[in-house]
Amino acid sequence: MFIEPSLAGGRRGWIEVICGAMFSGKTEELIRRLKRARIANLKVEIFKPGVDTRYDEHNIVSHDENRIISTPLENSQQILLLAQEVDVVGIDEAQFFDAELPNVCDQLALRGIRVIIAGLDMDFQGKPFGQMPFLLAKADYITKLHAICVKCGNIANYSFRKSAAQDTVLLGERDVYEPRCRHCYYEEP
Ligand SMILES: Nc1ncnc2c1ncn2[C@@H]1O[C@H](COP(=O)(O)OP(=O)(O)O)[C@@H](O)[C@H]1O
Ligand SMILES: Cc1cn([C@H]2C[C@H](O)[C@@H](COP(=O)(O)O)O2)c(=O)[nH]c1=O
Ligand SMILES: [Zn+2]
């Protein structure tokens, strides 16, 4: 379990990344950390890419219907304008943001802000997704979560796409994706 370093005293500001396959619990873990920050009376702002309208236009919603209000954005630079006077910034579905996001996160951390990012580390082809590898390289703290493989019950790092669509971005749920372990991802039809 992630234990938050203290924001009090000294040089503040750091980057946390929560990554893993679909259904691994990234959004639940992001919501948990953000709710704890609010319990600690910290000022929290939460952002998601405008493209992610799957469950709700404004809320971040987990597969189990946990939710927290967020601001949908067109680009990552907007975070610098909107995150004034805050202690903690949460960002969900980071894989969909533009190439400026790692730089934006650095700037936020330099302002003394705790930045918590959740995103898919791999796309359906098993390739690094969007800016996630750069965010992982810059992160001070990384949490890699695992789903359960729907084929064999092992831990799952891969998001298997059940359709033939080849576009990298294809929003979806259980209807389109299932979490699989390495063996079932590469060896099973
Ligand atoms: N195969 C699976 N493995 C793990 N969790 C699953 C699976 N299928 C459904 N879930 C549900 O998904 C929840 C995680 O949802 P969520 O936090 O939205 O994940 P993520 O953001 O990583 O896609 C779990 O708590 C569990 O109830
Ligand atoms: C693997 C993969 C996923 N997506 C989409 C599908 C969902 O809308 C999100 C991931 O959501 P989650 O919170 O991690 O469950 O991303 C995609 O567009 N392309 C892919 O390759
Ligand atoms: Zn498996």
Automatic annotation (TrEMBL):
InterPro entries: P-loop_NTPase (IPR027417), Thymidine_kinase (IPR001267), Thymidine_kinase_CS (IPR020633)
Catalytic residue positions: 93
Predominant cellular place of this UniProt entry's protein: cytoplasm
Compartments in which it is found: Cytoplasm
Enzyme Commission identifier(s): 2.7.1.21
Domain of life: Bacteria
Residues bound to ATP: 20-27, 92-95
PROSITE patterns in the record: TK_CELLULAR_TYPE
Keywords per UniProt: ATP-binding, Cytoplasm, DNA synthesis, Kinase, Metal-binding, Nucleotide-binding, Transferase, Zinc
GO-annotated molecular function: thymidine kinase activity
Binding site for Zn(2+): 149, 152, 181, 184
Top-rank EC class of the record's enzyme: transferase
Reactions catalysed: thymidine + ATP = dTMP + ADP + H(+)
TM segment ranges: none
SUPFAM superfamilies noted in UniProt: Glucocorticoid receptor-like (DNA-binding domain), P-loop containing nucleoside triphosphate hydrolases
HAMAP family with a match to the protein in the record: Thymidine_kinase (MF_00124)
Homology family: Belongs to the thymidine kinase family.
PANTHER family assigned: THYMIDINE KINASE, THYMIDINE KINASE, CYTOSOLIC
Subunit structure: Homotetramer.
Record's protein name: Thymidine kinase
Species assigned in the record: Chitinophaga defluvii
Name of the encoding gene: tdk
